[in-house]
Design the sequence.
C-alpha cells in the first residue's frame, strides 16, 4: 500500500506471496527510480527470503534484480544462498505445502524438470540463476538456464545484446505488470529511455505473439496459459504504442481489438501461426504463408486464408502433464471463424472431461485419469489448396484407469472403455466466392459387437445460443449487436444416420458450459459432424448461404450431398470397405468431391470435377470414372 508517500509491504499469506507483492514495489522503483518503493521491496526481500519456499523463487529473483543497488554485500550473499536453496527445492519437486512433483531429476535435466514443476503448477519461473561458481551446478546447466528468467534475460541484454535465436525457456514475471506498463504509457512515460525496456528485442515480441493471438502457448517450450497475462488487451495496447513501426505488433493489435472474444486466452485461437526463428524484420507476403502447419508440441493447424476474419481450425494432438486438475483433453479441436470462437476449449477452468470436445462411451469420457492425460499422436496429414485433413489416434485415451477397491481401498488397474481402435479425422474444405469453408470432424470407434450409448461433444462459446433449424443446429450470439456489425453464426449437422444433435448447457456456480452433443445407441459407430461458419450479410460483405445437406445412408458407410450456390460437394465416409454412395465408389475413409453445377439444360446431375480430397484409400470412382488410381494411399487431386 502507498499512503502519504510511504510504502509498506504487509505479510498477509505465504512468504512467496509477500515476495510477489514486493515485486510490484521493486518494479515501480526500477522504472521510476522512486527509492520509497525500492526500499519497500528491499525490506520485504531481506525479511522474507530466509523463509520463502520454491513458490517465491520468481518473485525473489525479480525483486533481487530490481533493487540490487540498494542491497549490501551481506544481503546479496544471503539472497543468493537462499535462491540456491529454493532451486534445490524446485529440483526435488517438493514445496512446504506438501505438494510433490516427484523425485529429483538428473541435474542435466533440471531446466526441463523445472519447466514441468514450476510452470505447470502455476508458478511462473525458476528465479535468479546467475550463480556461476556455486558448487554442483555445471556450466552446461547454467548456459541452458541463462534465459530462464526475465531478470536474467534483462541482465543478459544489458551486457551482451540479445541472442539471435531467442531463449529456450522464459519467465513470465514481466507479465504480472502489464497494468502499470499501460498506465505509464498513458502518463506519457517514454519507455525508450528505460535501460531495460528499450532493449526488448524482436524475438521477445515473438514470445508474446502466441498468447496475444490466442494461438496455443504449448507451441513454445514453455506451455503455460500465463501468456494471457502478458498479452491481455492492456499489454497489447502498450506494445502496439511502444513499437509503432513493428509490423508484427501492429498485426497483433488489429487481431486482438476484434469485437468478439471469450476471454483473454482463447478469444482468437488459431488467428495466426507462429513462424520459425529468427523473426523476420517485416511481415511476409500472406500469399507465401502455408494454409496447413504441423507443430509436434501443439497439433495440426488449418487456415483458410490470411485475412483478418479468415477461419482457423486446430486439431490438438499432444497432452502436457497437468498438475492443477484443470486439464485439457488432447485429440480435441478448436475452431475460430470470422473473428469468433465457435468450438472452444474448456476455458481452463473445468476439472471434468464432461466439458471438453470428446467422445464418451456409456457415460464414461476419454480420460484415463484426472492428472495425466493421454497422447493423441498424428497418424497422417494431407495438405491441398482445395482441402486439407489430419488423422489422430485416440486409442490411448481408453487405456486402463486406476481405481480403489474393497474396504482397504487397494489400488487396482481397471479397463476404462477399452477399444480396439479410436481415431479422429479433422478436415477443412475451402469454399468458393460465395461459399464459406466448412469443417468435418469424423470419429471412428471400434469397441465390441454390443450396443452402447455413444456421445460426441463439442464445447461451444458461452456467449452463443442454439437454435434448431431443420436438421441442423445454428449457433449464434445470444445478444446480437444492434449496430452495423453482424456477428457470424455457425450451422452444425450430424451427417451420420441414426443419431440426433442437440445443444446442452450446464451451470456450475457462476460458470455455464454449453456443448453440442450428438448421441446414438449403436455398435462401433462413426460420427461425422459438419461445422459450417456463416458470415451474414453486411453493408460491404455479401452474406453466405445456409447449410443445405441431404443425408445419403449406405451399407458400410454414409454420405451427404451439400448444395451450394456455385458448386455441389459430395462426401462419403466408409467403414473400412468399399462403398458406393451418391455416385462415389471408394474404399477411402473419407472422400470429398467438389463438382461445378452442370450446364443449363444439361441432363447430367453434376458438372466437371473441381477438387477431390481422399483420406486413406486406394480407389475412387466418381460417376463411373476413375479419379484416383490404385496405390494412392493419401491423395488430393486439384
Sequence:
Amino acid at each position: 500500500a502507498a499512503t502519504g508517500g510511504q510504502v509498506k509491504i504487509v505479510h498477509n499469506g505465504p512468504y512467496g506471496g509477500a515476495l510477489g507483492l514486493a515485486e510490484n514495489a521493486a518494479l515501480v522503483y526500477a522504472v521510476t527510480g522512486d527509492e520509497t518503493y525500492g526500499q519497500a521491496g528491499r525490506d520485504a526481500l531481506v525479511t522474507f527470503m530466509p523463509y520463502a519456499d520454491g513458490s517465491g523463487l520468481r518473485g525473489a529473483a525479480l525483486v533481487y534484480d530490481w533493487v540490487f543497488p540498494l542491497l549490501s554485500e551481506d544481503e546479496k550473499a544471503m539472497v543468493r544462498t537462499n535462491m540456491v536453496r529454493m532451486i534445490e527445492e524446485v529440483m526435488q519437486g517438493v514445496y512446504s505445502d506438501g505438494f510433490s512433483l516427484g523425485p529429483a531429476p538428473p541435474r542435466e535435466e533440471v531446466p526441463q524438470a523445472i519447466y514441468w514443476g514450476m510452470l505447470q503448477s502455476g508458478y511462473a519461473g525458476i528465479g535468479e540463476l546467475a550463480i556461476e561458481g556455486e558448487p554442483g551446478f555445471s556450466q552446461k546447466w547454467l548456459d541452458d538456464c541463462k534465459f530462464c528468467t526475465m531478470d536474467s534475460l534483462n541482465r543478459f541484454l544489458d551486457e551482451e545484446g540479445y541472442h539471435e535465436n531467442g531463449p529456450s525457456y522464459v519467465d513470465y514475471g514481466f507479465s504480472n505488470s502489464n497494468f502499470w506498463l499501460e498506465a505509464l504509457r498513458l502518463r506519457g512515460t517514454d519507455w525508450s529511455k528505460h535501460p531495460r525496456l528499450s532493449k526488448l528485442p524482436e524475438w521477445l515480441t515473438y514470445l508474446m505473439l502466441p498468447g496475444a493471438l490466442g494461438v496455443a502457448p504449448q507451441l513454445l517450450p514453455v506451455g503455460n496459459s500465463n501468456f494471457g497475462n502478458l498479452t491481455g488487451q492492456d499489454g497489447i495496447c502498450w506494445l502496439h504504442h511502444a513499437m509503432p513501426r513493428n509490423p508484427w505488433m501492429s498485426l497483433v493489435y488489429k487481431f486482438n481489438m476484434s469485437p468478439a472474444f471469450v476471454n483473454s486466452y482463447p478469444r482468437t485461437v488459431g488467428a495466426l501461426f507462429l513462424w520459425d526463428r529468427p523473426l523476420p524484420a517485416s511481415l511476409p507476403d500472406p500469399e507465401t504463408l502455408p494454409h496447413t502447419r504441423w507443430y509436434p508440441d501443439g497439433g495440426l493447424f488449418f487456415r483458410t486464408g490470411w485475412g483478418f476474419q479468415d477461419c482457423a481450425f486446430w486439431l490438438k494432438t499432444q497432452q502436457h502433464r497437468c498438475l492443477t486438475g484443470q486439464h485439457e483433453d488432447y485429440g480435441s479441436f478448436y475452431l475460430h471463424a470470422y473473428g469468433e470462437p465457435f468450438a472452444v476449449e474448456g476455458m481452463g477452468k473445468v476439472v471434468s472431461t464432461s466439458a471438453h470436445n470428446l467422445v464418451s462411451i456409456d457415460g464414461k469420457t476419454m480420460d484415463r485419469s484426472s492428472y495425466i492425460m493421454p497422447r493423441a499422436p498424428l497418424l497422417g496429414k494431407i495438405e491441398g489448396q482445395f482441402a486439407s485433413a489430419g488423422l489422430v489416434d485416440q486409442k490411448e485415451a481408453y487405456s486402463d484407469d486406476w481405481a480403489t477397491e474393497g474396504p482397504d481401498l487397494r489400488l487396482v488397474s481397471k479397463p476404462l472403455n477399452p477399444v480396439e481402435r479410436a481415431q479422429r479425422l479433422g478436415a477443412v474444405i475451402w469454399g468458393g466466392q460465395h461459399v464459406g469453408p466448412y469443417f468435418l470432424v469424423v470419429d471412428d470407434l471400434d469397441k465390441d459387437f454390443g450396443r452402447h450409448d455413444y456421445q460426441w461433444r463439442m464445447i461451444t462459446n458461452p456467449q452463443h445460443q442454439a437454435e434448431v433449424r431443420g436438421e441442423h443446429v445454428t449457433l449464434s450470439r445470444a445478444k446480437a449487436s444492434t449496430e452495423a456489425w453482424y456477428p457470424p453464426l455457425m450451422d452444425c449437422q450430424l451427417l451420420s444416420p441414426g443419431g440426433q444433435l442437440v445443444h446442452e448447457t450446464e451451470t456450475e456456480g457462476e460458470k455455464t458450459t454449453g456443448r453440442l452433443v450428438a448421441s446414438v445407441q449403436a455398435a462401433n459407430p462413426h460420427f461425422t459432424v459438419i461445422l459450417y461458419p456463416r458470415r451474414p450479410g453486411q453493408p460491404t460483405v455479401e452474406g453466405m448461404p445456409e447449410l443445405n445437406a441431404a443425408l445419403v445412408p449406405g451399407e458400410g458407410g454414409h454420405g451427404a450431398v451439400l448444395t451450394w450456390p456455385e458448386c455441389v460437394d459430395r462426401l462419403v465416409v466408409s467403414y473400412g470397405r468399399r462403398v458406393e454412395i451418391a455416385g462415389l465408389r471408394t474404399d477411402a475413409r473419407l472422400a470429398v468431391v467438389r463438382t461445378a453445377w452442370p450446364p443449363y439444360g444439361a441432363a447430367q446431375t453434376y458438372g466437371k470435377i473441381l477438387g477431390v480430397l481422399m483420406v486413406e484409400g486406394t480407389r475412387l470412382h466418381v460417376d463411373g470414372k476413375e479419379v484416383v488410381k490404385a496405390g494412392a494411399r493419401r491423395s488430393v487431386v486439384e
Q: What stands out?
A: The mean pLDDT is 64. Residues 267 and 464 are 13 Å apart (CA to CA).
